[in-house]
């Protein structure tokens, strides 16, 4: 087996003349497999593997991104014509990728564990849901411009991000001077406070409609056309993913990103060289919360319904597991971790659950319902974290520490002096 792997690695290192045919064959096989059974347990996993395969090659960067765009923008929608469920799962995977990248800013770049990240997601969703449905008439005067139509969705992407920034700033101010276990507890409490507020803001004015949630949230409207298809939502999420990845790359290589890395590695040393610790930590909270707020608006528009039960602390744990599994501080690793756990949760566990259910009914197997894989997602998340901490604490793709040379240090010094 080792000999076969070594031979394949030797062939792979031969360059594009070997890599391109292998990638073409792999992509074609993944497309055939997914197109034949788009609702299958591993259909989405096969297509995301095909999209990520070029990044293991020695192709130019433009060719890698071009190949990935063809898979995501052409092949995936073609498969989606056979199954709306396939496109729905792809859309949800993209949403979790954005959430994981946002949490990675605080956890991966700055080293701050935030267990209340999903609260910003909830605030963005409720901002759109409240002002674009008849629910707003309970606390706003009737006869005005409210409720807003779906054409305001694009504005609410900015509003959701602004709300996330504002609340992230207000939360960061009092708690940012604490760290470790205390920060985890405070952010966890913040998540529960937001969820309970959404549950109980029904008296004396029914603002959030409590546990019943808010229904009939409008779909986005663009140039008079209602984007009510899941394929439209997929492309909206894909565009947001691309923008967020670009922002994260810019942050990672910026002066701000280097300051976050310094704080993560040694806060005392960072303070000694003059890095404003508090300001940098607040900046990480604010930018991270912005991504959560934006994606909350998308979630509300996609689902058409929001309730407090959509934003439990378990989702925060799941997003944290995505970051840790992929590799904290590493953008490709976080994307991989988010994709794997999302597909595990949305497709693979449910498929295994259906197999067990059919075996229980048709095969006469006495399998307790408590062992249903779809009900054991928290167990699997915990198991993943334990295994990763033991065998690969840096994640699947750990962050590579970039060596600092005299030339790069001089270049950074010139940039700082401008």
Can you give a write-up of this model?
Helix content is 68%, strand content 1%. The protein has 418 residues and is mainly α. Strands 1-2 form a two-stranded antiparallel sheet. Helix 6 runs parallel beside helix 8. The longest helix has 32 residues. The model has no long low-confidence stretch (mean pLDDT 84).
Summarize the structure.
The protein contains 16 helices and 2 strands.
What is the element layout, followed by pairings?
Elements: H1 2-12, H2 16-36, H3 43-52, H4 61-80, H5 84-109, H6 118-131, H7 153-175, H8 181-200, E1 221-222, E2 225-226, H9 230-252, H10 255-265, H11 267-272, H12 277-303, H13 313-326, H14 331-362, H15 377-391, H16 406-417
Antiparallel strand pairs: 1-2
Helix pairs in contact: 2-3, 2-4, 3-4, 4-5, 5-9, 5-12, 5-13, 5-14, 6-7, 6-8, 6-12, 7-12, 10-12, 13-14, 13-15
> Whole-number radius of gyration?
23 Å
Which structural class best describes the helix and strand composition? mainly alpha
Strand arrangement in the largest pleated sheet: 1-2
* Gross morphology: globular
- Specify the number of helices: 16
Report the strand count.
Answer: 2
Calculate the terminal CA-CA distance, rounded to whole Å.
56 Å
The helical percent reads: 55-70%
Order of helices and strands: HHHHHHHHEEHHHHHHHH
The oligomeric status of these chains comes to: single chain
């Amino acid at each position: 087996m080792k000999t076969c792997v070594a031979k394949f690695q030797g062939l792979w290192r031969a360059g594009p003349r070997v890599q391109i045919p292998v990638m073409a064959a792999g992509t074609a096989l993944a497309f055939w497999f997914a197109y034949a059974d788009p609702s299958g347990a591993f259909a989405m996993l096969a297509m995301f593997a095909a999209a990520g395969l070029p990044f293991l090659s020695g192709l130019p960067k433009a060719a890698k991104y071009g190949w990935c765009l063809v898979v995501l923008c052409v092949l995936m929608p073609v498969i989606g014509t056979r199954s709306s469920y396939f496109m729905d799962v792809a859309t949800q995977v993209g949403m979790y990728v954005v959430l994981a990248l946002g949490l990675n800013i605080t956890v991966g770049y700055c080293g701050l564990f935030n267990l209340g990240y999903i609260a910003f997601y909830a605030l963005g969703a409720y901002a759109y849901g409240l002002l674009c449905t008849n629910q707003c008439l309970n606390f706003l005067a009737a006869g005005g411009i409210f409720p807003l139509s779906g054409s305001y969705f694009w504005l609410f992407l900015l509003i959701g991000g602004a709300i996330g920034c504002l609340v992230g700033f207000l939360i960061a101010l009092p708690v940012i001077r604490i760290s470790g276990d205390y920060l985890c507890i405070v952010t966890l409490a913040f998540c529960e406070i937001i969820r309970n507020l959404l549950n109980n803001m029904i008296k004396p004015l029914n603002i959030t409609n409590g546990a019943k949630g808010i229904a009939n949230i409008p779909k986005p409207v663009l140039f008079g056309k209602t984007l009510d298809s899941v394929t439209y939502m997929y492309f909206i999420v894909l565009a947001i993913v691309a923008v967020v990845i670009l922002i994260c790359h810019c942050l990672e290589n910026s002066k701000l990103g280097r300051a976050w890395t310094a704080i993560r590695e040694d806060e005392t040393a960072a303070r000694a060289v003059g890095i404003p610790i508090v300001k940098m930590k607040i900046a990480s909270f604010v930018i991270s919360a912005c991504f959560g707020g934006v994606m909350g608006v998308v979630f509300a528009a996609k689902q058409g319904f929001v309730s407090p039960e959509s934003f439990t602390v378990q989702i925060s744990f799941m997003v944290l597991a995505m970051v840790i599994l992929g590799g904290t501080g590493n953008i490709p690793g976080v994307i991989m971790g988010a994709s794997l756990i999302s597909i595990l949760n949305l497709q693979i566990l449910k498929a295994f659950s259906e197999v067990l259910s059919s075996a229980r009914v048709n095969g006469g197997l006495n399998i307790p319902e408590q062992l249903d894989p779809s009900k054991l997602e928290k167990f699997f998340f915990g198991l993943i974290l334990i295994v990763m901490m033991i065998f690969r604490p840096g994640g699947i793709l750990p962050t590579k520490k970039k060596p600092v040379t005299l030339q790069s240090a001089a270049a950074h010094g010139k940039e700082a002096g401008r």
